[in-house]
Specification:
Blueprint: E1 6-11, H1 17-31, H2 35-55, E2 64-72, E3 75-82, H3 109-117, E4 120-126, E5 131-138, H4 166-170, E6 173-176, H5 182-193, H6 205-214, E7 217-223, E8 229-236, E9 244-252, H7 261-275, E10 280-283, H8 291-299, E11 302-311, E12 328-336, E13 344-348, H9 352-362, E14 367-371, E15 382-388, E16 393-400, H10 405-418, E17 423-429, H11 435-443, E18 448-454, E19 460-467, H12 482-494
Parallel strand pairs: 9-10, 13-14, 16-17
Antiparallel strand pairs: 1-2, 2-3, 3-5, 4-5, 4-15, 6-7, 7-8, 8-9, 10-12, 11-12, 15-16, 17-19, 18-19
Length: 503
């Protein structure tokens, strides 16, 4: 079986397409994809490669581009990388399925086909380094309901759970999950949340075990004296190079709730993170109730941002609360694990007061500089975006400001709104003097303040947010700490949607 990456360097000639597809077919077959999935991969790749050959370069220009095949235990990632003409996929008109087969429009069809054939499609403008298109296809996996008949029943009702004895509590062991226990963890999530939990991976034992093997997700479990998995908490990061991780994916069996199991798992998680050299941890407690906010506060997390409308409304919290009556809101909280450096932070002047309060709440010392009107010097921006389908939200990270930044973001925002993405988070570098000016420009597009988060994407990161024609009832957002209450009042005042959706 193929285990390493392969890189094809191809000249921009359409005659190479058959050879590329032949290689891709053999590669996909060798790593375990069936014929139907192979055909889907080839179709998506054909659209992507044809687009590069026909549109990325001048008509008479001879150049090369790369196709990178990266296998993993969960599937394949194909990266098409070129340094041709600047391209913005958001300028391509959206595709609408026709009523009649004879009326199929050509505009946007290629992008539509790619997204239908693979599980994830993302595009990155890399400035002078060109651009990349990422195609990700997962192996078909069994969900927890396919493992045995016991998992096909409805989640176990709360009233069927018996209380636990002091002896049972004393026998609980908190440790790292073993690969063979992934099935039991998935069962725990199914019985706790039904199928309402936002992270699909928790229902797929094979994927959960593989992500643990890779180190992208690290599962901590609470195990009873009888060997039953009664609790789960995880460390999650986007890449192995990240120095900060999210603490989340928590679940506790109903009969074991109220006995500080979540706290014990978090303490284990923090000790492991320190031993592994992480700089910090962040959490995202929900605001439909105060419980998770209280837990993070007891452990030592400090609140630093509020992200409105970023959770689906159909998440169930069995034994704690019902479903959200509107899209859910998270509080971002942070805990440093090392002494963070005192660096220069350029605060947008119109948000300086509240941002200083947030830093004070975090207990972090910075060299604060009021940012006014530093203008980007380069022509091209570097920004990366991704859509998170299960939450119907998107994230945009601007790594470098160019003169095209506002126009490029406006086009990307329009595309996301046309796709009916509900919420968009924008991450900006507070170590860049231009952030103050750019923050004001982005707010003119409809973004507004969320808060700050240290060590995520940048040493110090400003978070802005955008709601796509969503009006929230702020009275349903349950803020626990004084800092969160103050942030919520400030954000509500800045929310351009509070008087009704934009026209």
């Amino acid at each position: 079986m193929i285990s390493g990456r392969s890189i094809l360097t191809i000249t921009n000639e359409i005659a190479y397409l058959h050879a590329i597809q032949s290689f891709a077919r053999e590669f996909a077959n060798e790593i375990g994809f069936g014929k139907d999935d192979q055909e889907a991969i080839l179709l998506a790749l054909e659209e992507a490669v044809t687009n590069v050959i026909e549109h990325a370069f001048e008509p008479a220009e001879r150049a090369t581009f790369q196709i990178i095949f990266e296998p993993s235990m969960t599937g394949i990632e194909i990266i098409i990388k070129d340094k041709g003409l600047p391209y913005d996929p958001n300028l391509v008109p959206g595709y609408t399925e026709p009523d009649n087969i004879g009326d199929i429009p050509s505009h946007g069809l290629g992008s539509y086909i790619m997204k239908k054939c693979v599980d994830e499609v993302s595009f990155s403008n890399l400035g002078k380094e060109g651009k990349e298109l990422h195609l990700i296809k997962h192996f078909p996996r069994k969900s927890i309901t396919e493992y045995d008949e016991t998992s096909k029943s409805e989640p176990v009702p709360e009233r069927c759970e018996k209380s636990v004895s002091p002896t049972q509590l004393q026998e609980i062991e908190v440790r790292l999950m073993r690969p063979s226990e992934a099935v039991e963890v998935s069962r725990l999530f199914y019985r706790t949340y039904g199928y309402s939990y936002f992270s699909d991976v928790m229902y797929y034992p094979d994927r959960l075990a593989e992500l643990n093997r890779q180190g992208i997700l690290i599962s901590i479990v609470a195990v009873s004296g009888e060997g039953e998995i009664v609790g789960h908490q995880a460390m999650i990061r986007d890449a192995l190079t990240d120095t900060i991780f999210e603490a989340g994916r928590g679940a506790v069996k109903a009969s074991f709730r109220g006995h500080n199991l979540l706290l014990r798992m978090m303490e284990f998680l923090i000790d492991k993170a320190k031993a592994d050299g992480f700089k910090g941890i962040y959490g995202k407690p929900v605001t439909v109730h105060e419980y998770s906010q209280k837990v993070t506060g007891r452990i030592g997390f400090k609140d630093c941002a509020i992200l409105l409308g970023c959770a689906p409304s159909d998440i169930a919290f069995k034994g704690i609360a019902g479903k959200f009556s509107q899209r859910g809101t998270y509080v971002y909280c942070f805990m440093p694990l090392v002494q963070l450096p005192v660096v220069s932070v350029y605060l947008p002047s119109h948000h300086e007061a509240i941002l200083r309060k947030i830093y004070s709440n975090l207990g972090l010392s910075k060299n604060f500089i009021t940012s006014h009107c530093s203008v980007p010097e380069d022509d091209l921006s570097i920004m990366k975006s991704k859509i998170i389908p299960e939450d119907n939200i998107a994230e945009i990270v601007i790594h470098h400001y160019g003169r095209d930044c506002v126009a490029a973001l406006r086009r990307l925002l329009k595309d996301l709104c046309v796709r009916k993405i509900d919420q968009i988070t924008l991450f900006l570098n507070l170590g860049d003097p231009a952030t103050g000016l750019m923050c004001e420009k982005f707010e003119e597009l409809g973004f507004f303040l969320s808060g700050i988060i240290p060590c995520l994407h940048f040493e110090d990161t400003l978070m802005l947010q955008y709601l796509n024609n969503i009006v929230l009832d702020y009275s349903q957002i349950d803020a626990y700490s004084d800092m969160t209450k103050e942030m919520l009042a400030y954000i509500k005042e800045k929310d351009p949607n509070k008087e009704g959706p934009r026209q």
